[in-house]
Amino acid sequence: MKRAYAFFKENLYALLFTVSGIITGYIYWVNWGMYYGTLPLSSECWVNCTYGGLIGGLLASELARHNKRLQKQKNKSA
To answer: For the segment 13-55, what is each residue's pLDDT rounded down to a tens digit?
Structure first.
């Protein structure tokens, strides 16, 4: 249980951004998705949700990496 808690605590932003990306992909599919058969990448709900989740996860990991760099620079200058 402690390992699961530590995992969620360490990756909280990545998980939140991934879930928000999935929700955004679903909203995009509902409002602007193409009809089935016209464009394969936009006609399937799971494709849009997967792309949204991947983009959200990548964005969160880049933000986390940037924040770690800023913390290291801040600690060096202090």
So the answer is: 899 999 999 999 999 888 887 776 667 667 788 888 999 999 9
Tell me which amino acid residue 3 is.
R
For residue 57, which amino acid is it? G
Domain total for the chain? 1
Helices (H), 1-78: 2-10, 12-32, 40-43, 45-77
**Which 3 state secondary structure label does DSSP give 16?**
helix
pTM (two decimals): 0.78
Whole domain around residue 38: which residue ranges? 2-77
